Amino acid sequence: MIARVSLEIALRKEFDYLIPPGLAAQIDVGSRVQVPFGPRKVLGVVTALAEESAHARLKPILKVIGAQTLVTPKVLKLARWIADYYCCAPETALKSVLPEAVRKEESGWRERLFVRALPPAGEFPKLPKRQQAVWNVIEERRELPLQELVELCETTAATVRKLEDRGLIEIAPQISERDPYAREHILPSQPLPLNPAQETALAKIIEAMDRREDGRSKLENGKASPSSILHPPSSTFLLHGVTGSGKTEVYLQALAHALEQGQGAIVLVPEISLTPQTVERFKARFNSGKLQTLVAVLHSHLSAGERHDEWHKIRQGRARIVIGARSAIFAPVEPLGLIIVDEEHEHTYKQEEAPRYHARDVAIMRGQMENAVVVLGSATPSMESYYNCKKGKYTLLELPERVDDQKMPHVRVVDMRQAAHKEKGIPIFSPQLKEAITQRLERKEQTILFLNRRGYSTSLQCPKCGYVAQCPNCSLPLTYHRIDQRLSCHICGHNEKVPSVCPNEKCKNPAIRYAGTGTQKVEEALAKLFPHARVRRMDADTMKRKDDYRKVLGDFRAGKTDILVGTQMIAKGLHFPNVTLVGIIYADLALHQPDFRAGERTFQLLTQVAGRAGRGDVEGEVFVQAFSPFHPAIQFARRHDFTGFYDQEIEFREQLKYPPASRVALLTLKGRNEDKVKFSADHLKRELEKKLQTGESKGRAGSPLPATHTQTNDGAHGVTRSTDFKDLIIAGPAPAPLLRAEQFYRYQIMLRTRAMTKLSQALAKIVQSLALPEDVSLTVDIDPVNLG
Ligand code: ADP
Ligand code: ZN
Questions:
Q1: Confidence band (pLDDT; 50, 70, 90) for 709?
Q2: CB–CB of 398/200 below 8 Å?
Q3: Per residue in 296-320, pLDDT tens?
Q4: Which SS3 state, helix, strand or coil, does residue 250 take?
């Protein structure tokens, strides 16, 4: 027998190997194997078995990894689709379907010595410096191989043993199964009686699940033709419900139905909402009694060992429900009856490195392939998903009201132009917001203040000569961080000391100034205005350690904090009954980005943040401070009017052929030498025109952009319409909105068409035959989310 193997080295090719008789029983499609390749030994996945090969003198497979095939045939098929659609090498797609801890498993993995932090017992001892350094690493990683720890800390096993003597860690050869949540005591929960809207939504989902189940068994008994099952009424749902409308309860009861049917399920949540709070709700419903392992959790904060164990629990069928971030969509759940994608509009579902897949879209594809029902949920659905409902591809389910008739918070938009006029400068707080905070402090209610910009000031500017401190690697101003008196770049991390005089040789003005406001400045201004208020800040700068997030939120929940200031970290999923005021400091920060989704993002963000107010008995109030208070994204968010926003936004997208009215492929060329990058981009554009059989470049096409959407990739650059792909538009090349990042110049070409599957195939061919200078690289991003 012969096995066809996709190797983990980027070759875009599969190779045939002999299956030695001794391994025949263990090898199947999906097995991970080690094979010889030239002088090397490399890892790969068996993608097919064959009787014979076109090649003579095949080498034998060396060994098999794992007792079970690791990539199930269904997931293998999904990986193939990803490689085709997202235009990446099959081995890249295959690599991403297994967690690293599973992929790299060697036969000796379990016999090595591991170090693991033990739950703290009593006061933490004062440790000698070296031991403390070792402990810091263990605490951060929770668990790691002893060898790795010793190398990492440049220490000896003896030092590590001292920590073991103190009872802080455990060193063991055999890892017992690690349950990352074992230490938490979770009270079981019962299904709640549903309100009518929830009832209707659940009934529709269950009906689709039963229909599919029915179809499956009919198919097995030969009573139905496969085609009748492939085209039933839509089995993809969009559950549109405001925050607090009880979507999660609907998910929980749909999951219970899947279990009753003997089916498994996957629940995707954005990484940022994978808080213990969320996980607990699922565990509380299903992990009670004897079924302790029913729910498995997959996310990036697990240690490698924990991830390994969670994954194998699923593969062995002991865990039937998987909850996790993006890559959990590849979990080997079988049979798969239901996929839930919560907060489906979230951008973190898109992977920003190859394979650049969108987990929501992969979920829909997987649902179709495996006959599973898919439920997308959101308070602010993406334009794409809502459009698909309008077109009849998905079924729309709505939960229009909050559970228990809680009112939606009252949203007031404050025109900051007036406030700025009165105060001669840009204030942080309008008089209205100041007043509202004062009231809350008096009433002992809590406030959340939101500003999507960390640091103290956005930039450092000399008022005399106009000098702005720029990152030497990126085309961006540096952000001033007052606490450590440094300037730092939020793209590449470059860091430097604040100059005391203007660095411009001819100027040297000592009165250098800071422009713009970040969260640090808000925190400081609060301390001045409300010296007795207890203020905490939550952003990437204060949340450096793993437990920080939990600690700050725990304090806030316990009422130990009056005002929480933060970036988008605090925008989502949090539920605090005593928060009655939410202030959005500058609502239009995201509005003037060169991205056709700027309006959509602003609308989503404002709606999500506003949803944090009034989750308890007292009605909430939201202040939105804005310099363009009449922008539709702000006005529709103020009225909680999603459909109103959708209707005006879709007009703009259709007019300019932006998604969801078409699909986008973004080609980015990158290199250190700007001329070479530009030249390569022009060359690629010509190739695209030639190979996609387009007509001549016609210069600028389409109608001028409406004033609210100031910039898009069309700009003044050449736009071509295709004759082969009837609706293809090629725009660019143009400098990327962030022209230079981490020392690389970037130029982009944007293609738009409805026929993306076809275009992806054509692009794959063009890219492979494209000759680029050695120091210029090309990335292809299908359905990009980040245009920067
Ligand atoms: P969403 O996921 O839409 O934000 P949740 O499912 O978290 O909403 O529901 C908000 C709150 O209302 C939760 O505390 C939940 O337990 C409660 N809840 C949900 N459905 C019901 C119901 N039918 N009856 C009573 N309480 C409910
Ligand atoms: Zn930089």
A1: very low
A2: no
A3: 998 877 777 778 888 888 888 888 9
A4: helix
Q: Give me the pLDDT at residue 700, please.
A: 39
Q: Which ligand is nearest to the CA of 277?
A: 1
Ion ligand 2 contact residues with beta carbon within 5 A? 471, 473-474, 489, 491-492, 494
Residues 6+ apart with CB under 8 A from 18: 1, 2, 3, 58, 59, 60, 61
pLDDT tens digits along 629-662: 888 999 999 988 999 999 999 998 998 889 999 9
Burial of 4 (0-12, 13-18, 19+ CB in 10 A): middle
Q: Are 613 and 580 in contact (CB under 8 A)?
A: yes
- The pTM is what? 0.81
Closest listed ligand to the CA of 249: 1
In angstroms, rounded to a whole number, what is the distance separating the alpha carbons of residues 119 and 64? 36
- Give the DSSP H or E segment for 686: helix 674-691
Q: Which of 256, 620, 607 is nearest to 410 (CA)?
A: 620
Alpha helix locations (H) across 484-547? 519-529
pLDDT at 587: 85
Nearest to 259 by CA among 311, 312, 295: 295
Residue pair 409/613 in contact by the 8 Å Cβ criterion: yes
What is the atom index within ligand 1 of the atom nearest the CA of 242?
A: 3
Determine the distance separating the centroid of ligand 1 and the alpha carbon of 575, expressed in angstroms.
11
Residue 675 alpha carbon to ligand 2 centre in Å: 20
Quote the CA–CA distance of 634 and 572 in Å, as a whole number.
Answer: 18
For tokens 């709606």, the residue is: 607
Which of 412 and 229 is assigned the larger pLDDT? 412
pLDDT digits (tens, 9 = 90+) for 125-180: 888 888 888 988 888 777 777 878 888 888 888 888 888 888 888 877 655 556 55
Query: Ligand 1 within 6 A of 377 CB?
Result: no
pLDDT single digits (tens) 693-705: 654 444 434 333 3
| CA of 611, closest atom in ligand 1 | 4
The answer, yes or no, to whether any atom of ligand 1 lies below 6 A from the CB of 195, is: yes
- Give the ligand at the shortest distance from the Cα of 477: 2
Phi-psi label, residue 492: left if phi above 0, alpha if psi -120 to 50, beta otherwise: alpha
Residues near 250 by beta carbon (within 8 Å), at least 6 away in sequence: 194, 198, 201, 202, 205, 239, 399
Q: Is 222 a residue whose pLDDT tops 70?
A: no
